[in-house]
Every structure is written in C-alpha cells, then in structure tokens.
C-alpha cells in the first residue's frame, strides 16, 4: 500500500546525515532539530504555534485537556473514521456523539452534526478523511453560533488547502480552535516511528497546550496543570524536517496517481473518489466505492493476485462495543453503513509508477470481466 523504502532511497543521504548529527549531538529530547522543525512547520502551515508531541492520538487528547473539557461534555465526530478520534473522547470521560458522513467526501455530514448539538455539546472534531478537508466554513459557522470548540483531526490531510467563499485559503488543521496531526510512517508527512503535533493560533491556549504536553509544567518542577508526557524525539524531528521540504511534491505525486486511477477505473461498477469544490485532496488513501458488485469478492480476487488493497473502515464506530449507545440507531447512519460495505482502497504513495498502477488496474478490470 505504501513504499517507504523507495521514498527513503531518494532522500537517503539527507536523512542519514541528519540522523547521525542528532546521535553525535546527544540532544535526543527537545533538541535543536525539534525546535527547527516546529518553526518550519509553522511557516509551512502559516500558523502561529506548532506543539510537537509523541503521536496523533496524544495530540487529540492534549487538545481536549487544554480546552478544559469536563466529564459528561459531549463531543461530536463521525462514525466513519479510525477509532483514535473517539477513543480520546472516551478516555477523558467525555461523551462521544457519532454522526453520519457525506456520501461524496466521506467527511462529517454538516447537517447531521448540527442536528446532534445539545446543551451538553462542547466541541466538534471534524476528521479530514482520506486527504481532503471537511466543510470547514459551515462547521465554523455552526461552532460560532453555538459557542463550540473545533478540533481538526488532520492526520490524513496535512498539506491540503481549504478555500473559503471569500477566496481566503487556509491549510488543513489551521482553521478550527486547534488542529491535530499524526506523523505515523505511512502518513503523507511521516517519520520513522511515532510522532504528532498540535496547531493553534491562540497564544494563551497554545501556552496551555505546551504545559499539558509537558507534565503540566510552567517551568521545571512547577506544575500548573494535570498533564501528560508526550514528546517528539529529535531523530524523528530531523527526519520530518527533510520530508517537509518534499511534502508538496509528495502530495502532487499522490494527486497524479489518483487522477490516473480515476481515468482508468471510472465506470458504472466503480465510483471513483471526488474532490470537494472547496478543498484540495492530498490522497492519503485512494478509496473506491463498489456499485452493484461484491466488494469482498473483489478484495479476495486482488489478494489472490498478490495485488495490495485495504478496507478502511469495515465496522463503524457506532457498532463498536466500546462506543455503542442506545441513541445510535442504524437509521441515522445510512451513508456510513453503505461505505462500510462498499469501499476499497488501492495502493497510493509517493513512489507510484504507471507500471505499478497498471498491475492494480488490470487486476480490477479482470475481476469486472468475470
């Protein structure tokens, strides 16, 4: 599904030198590489504050802790997403409220979101799924109207750009109250282990986020908040600094691969992914919808041909034992349930070749001929 070795081979000299320099410096934690990466990512995103942390799940948890959300507060997110988004809500004894998604973008359904707001609602977590932004202009208007925080889950969409109706453009993760991302190796901007970051434009809130991420400390041995220990190590920061220089190139390579898939695979039986009119798409995943054909049979056929494919996410969150509530009835999730039965993701990464894609494409076409 990804070719991390091929990507590494192209930047091997730069990465090796950067990693060796960290080892020689012995500045493994919060060293100069972390501070430099923080500044460079702030410049790339045009955001005032980037707070690196240990992983994307920590980023979401730290964000919610810094906002002072209390047990019983409701936080709205989508049912069609990875579990980490809801997991941190539950870990903090908040109440996950799961809603349906849009059938075109797979991002949170804005009308369903607004209908789910109650007096207990405190925050919205839109997930920029598979590489494009949720409808942030409408979400921000709803949040302003009801006095809610917005925490963007940008783990799959770093580098995507959202355009507002007045022409203003902002990078994914820089629009809401707080943005969160993951640097898991397979992400569009991935390190060689775990890593994450939090984005914020509010000085006071950013200061609190930094405290929470560092044991709640305002200075050494002075703990103002209940915090956690969540740090991005210097070796990962060194790798990320190099990859950040190539991020736009990486995302463009993914878009090119996606367009080729679209051109070759669009047909009645397969619904190719669409790009929202107000967001660019960085194609963390390339996800088809099967229309009138057996998705699981297609997956089996491709696997038998040694052609990689994946299904994200086969079980919706509202069906997961850990997150079930009586109010989460299937009639409120028609799109989510359909996607769980019909989506299939194909290999897409920065090192894709047309020859490699043709193997995947021909495999799918052979299945359709059966």
Outline the structure in words.
The chain is globular and about 70 Å long. It is built from twelve helices and 14 strands. Helix 2 (12-25) runs antiparallel to helix 9 (234-265). Helix content is 40%, strand content 15%. It folds into two domains: 4-99 and 107-241, Aspartate Aminotransferase, domain 2; 247-369, Aspartate Aminotransferase, domain 1, CATH 3.90.1150.10. The protein is α/β, with parallel strands linked by helices and 370 residues long. A seven-stranded mixed sheet has the order 1-9-8-5-4-2-3, with helices on both faces.
Describe the SSE topology.
Blueprint: H1 4-10, H2 12-25, H3 32-45, E1 49-53, H4 56-66, E2 74-78, H5 84-91, E3 95-99, H6 110-115, E4 121-124, H7 136-146, E5 149-153, E6 161-163, E7 169-171, E8 178-182, E9 196-200, H8 203-213, E10 217-219, E11 222-223, H9 234-265, E12 270-271, E13 286-290, H10 295-304, H11 334-342, E14 343-346, H12 354-369
Parallel strand pairs: 2-3, 2-4, 4-5, 5-8
Antiparallel strand pairs: 1-9, 6-7, 8-9, 10-11, 12-13, 13-14
Shape: globular
Percentage of residues assigned to helices: 40-55%
Average of the residue pLDDT scores: 97
How many angstroms separate the termini?
A: 25 Å
CATH class of the largest domain: Alpha Beta
What amount of the residues lies in strands? 15-25%
**Beta-strand segment tally:** 14
What does the largest sheet look like?
A: 7 strands, mixed
Number of individual domains: 2
Radius of gyration: 21 Å
Look up the CATH topology of the largest domain.
Aspartate Aminotransferase, domain 2
Order of strands, main sheet, comes to: 1-9-8-5-4-2-3
How are helices and strands ordered from N to C? HHHEHEHEHEHEEEEEHEEHEEHHEH
The total of helices stands at: 12
CATH architecture of the largest domain: 3-Layer(aba) Sandwich
Characterize the quaternary organization of these chains.
single chain
* Residue windows where pLDDT falls under 50 for at least 5 positions: none
- Which secondary-structure class do the elements indicate? alpha/beta
CATH superfamily of the largest domain: Type I PLP-dependent aspartate aminotransferase-like (Major domain)
